[in-house]
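User: Here's a structure from my thesis project, written as structure tokens. My advisor, Dr. K., wants to see whether a designed sequence matches the one we expressed. Can you design one independently, without my sequence as a hint?
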């Protein structure tokens, strides 16, 4: 127990020292202000993943050689803001591919969802999250199920591949997400929603009213989307992301 405590203290001291060095960088202050994360009474952001990202960003050879122009600082601030927002979201990050298996029963999603839930599995779709307009997720058939982690909450799940860059750096094309079927929405979570006349999207929950729901991207190049708030547009909450590239951080 004592050795474990010493290891923890050493790790925390190391992180504190690293943060102290990072906070001395004038360019980082400008980046933090641009990312709307700067507060005079606290560190910019102390998530270990973001500390590592900042160290890489500040020390990358091409950054050092090129210097830090106003445009570079603004671009880095946008990336930093997206990384911080992604780190705050309630999505578990897992390296590698999900454990796949043959379906225990065949049929459309709506027909197999209950059986899959009982067996702690999730039908996986190949169409990508951005399914075309006019297509209904529940009418899609699937040839693969993925195993739901033992520590995941009870419920029914689907797994979908990610398409596009709107949720970068949290989600990338080729990643898979595990979605717990539930129409309830909570701020600072990521949900699977159906945009009328556009298809399915994975977005961060923004402003929520009784009748409307704002969907936000992490990538600032993508504008917010507002959709009706009802059981037909909100399918569920993303609780986990598998990344085949091996990165388990934003």
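Assistant: Designed independently from the structure alone:
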């Amino acid at each position: 127990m004592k050795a474990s405590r010493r290891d923890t203290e050493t790790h925390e001291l190391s992180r504190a020292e690293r943060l102290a060095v990072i906070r001395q960088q004038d360019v980082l202050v400008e980046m933090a202000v641009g990312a709307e994360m700067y507060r005079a009474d606290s560190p910019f952001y102390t998530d270990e993943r973001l500390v590592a990202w900042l160290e890489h960003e500040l020390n990358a050879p091409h950054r050092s050689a090129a210097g830090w122009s106003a445009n570079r600082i603004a671009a880095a601030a946008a990336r930093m803001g997206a990384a911080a927002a992604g780190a705050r979201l309630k999505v578990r990050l897992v390296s590698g591919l999900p454990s796949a298996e043959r379906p225990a029963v065949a049929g459309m999603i709506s027909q197999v969802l209950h059986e899959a839930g009982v067996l702690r599995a999730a039908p996986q779709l190949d169409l990508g999250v951005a399914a075309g307009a006019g297509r209904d997720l529940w009418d899609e058939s699937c040839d693969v199920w993925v195993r739901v982690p033992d520590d995941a909450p009870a419920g029914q799940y689907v797994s979908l591949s990610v398409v596009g860059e709107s949720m970068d750096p949290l989600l990338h094309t080729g990643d898979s997400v595990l979605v717990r079927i539930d129409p309830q929405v909570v701020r600072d979570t990521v949900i699977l929603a159906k945009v009328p006349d556009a298809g399915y999207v994975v977005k961060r929950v923004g402003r929520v009213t009784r009748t409307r729901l704002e969907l936000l991207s992490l990538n600032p190049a993508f504008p917010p989307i507002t959709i009706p708030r009802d059981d037909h547009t909100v399918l569920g909450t993303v609780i986990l992301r598998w990344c085949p590239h091996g990165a388990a951080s934003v």
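When you compare it with your expressed construct, this may help: Helices lie at 2-23, 26-34, 48-59, 61-66, 70-88, 109-118.
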